[in-house]
């Protein structure tokens, strides 16, 4: 412990240095946040922004979903607490390993990770999704907010999301409430199908973020929460690396930013490899 504490202390001296490689390549180091305490940690570590705000934690361990105002209060706290650095708010990723108490999957669902989760659930439940989008949009009037969609597997979902977002904007305009009309919309690449079709997603979205926690799970067919198979969980599997490379290359071709927000991005063992593959934005726990 003393050795790792010493190392952490020596790294703290570097927090205000730019994150540039020896050969002059700039990187962005951003944070994954969930709880209010993470906001302070993100600021005190001088992160360049928040690359993943996991909103589902507002919805868990309670009997009903928070309403639009309660959500807005949480997003406002994050945006204002970050004091001008950009924040990427991920739309609800409920289902599978992140269950709402009152919407637990019924017993006929054998494979929740392959079931109605994340964007699939949101598009099917407008009563849940509309106030969520309105709250995120209202937060975008308060500071630099981007919106990010988890678990995309086909373009239809992107089109439906954009239509729903447009409706939410129009309803806010009718209500006289402010939002950033030019809010950036990005997608998470977590499903192998989306990585293989990264060009198509890159054409329609403003940025992509590689969610390796799920991408590894789905590529290698191992449940990320099943201890019996976690010895197979390998971000360096050649198939996973090929998919990651496809996404980075698609971002370059379409001139959009690519980040990584799975745990792989915060693991020092993988950073040299990912830099070499062309990744320049790393989002990790503060
Ligand atoms: C991921 O899948 O890599 C990710 C960042 O999302 P989560 O861990 O919240 O599923
Ligand atoms: Mg995920």
Characteristic terms for this protein:
eight-stranded parallel barrel; 286 residues; binds magnesium ion; alpha/beta; binds phosphoenolpyruvate
List the helices and strands and how they pair.
Layout: H1 2-12, E1 28-33, H2 36-44, E2 50-54, H3 68-81, E3 87-90, H4 118-124, H5 126-139, E4 145-149, H6 155-174, E5 185-189, H7 192-196, H8 198-204, E6 207-210, H9 212-220, H10 238-254, E7 258-260, H11 271-277, E8 281-284
The structure holds phosphoenolpyruvate and magnesium ion.
- Global mean pLDDT: 94
Biggest pleated sheet:
8 strands, parallel, barrel
- Enumerate the strands of the largest sheet in spatial order, edge to edge or round the barrel: 1-2-3-4-5-6-7-8
> Helical residue percent?
40-55%
> What structural class is derived from the secondary structure elements?
alpha/beta
| Span between termini | 19 Å
Alpha plus pi helix count: 11
Would you give an account of this structure?
Helix 2 (about 35-45) links the parallel strand 1 and strand 2 (about 50-55). The two termini are about 20 Å apart. Helix 3 (about 70-80) runs parallel beside helix 5 and helix 8 (about 200-205) runs parallel beside helix 10 (about 240-255). It contains 11 helices and 8 strands. It has about 290 residues and is an alpha/beta fold. Bound molecules: phosphoenolpyruvate and magnesium ion. The site of magnesium ion has 5 residues, from helix 9.
In short:
By secondary structure, the protein is α/β, with parallel strands linked by helices. It contains 11 helices and 8 strands.
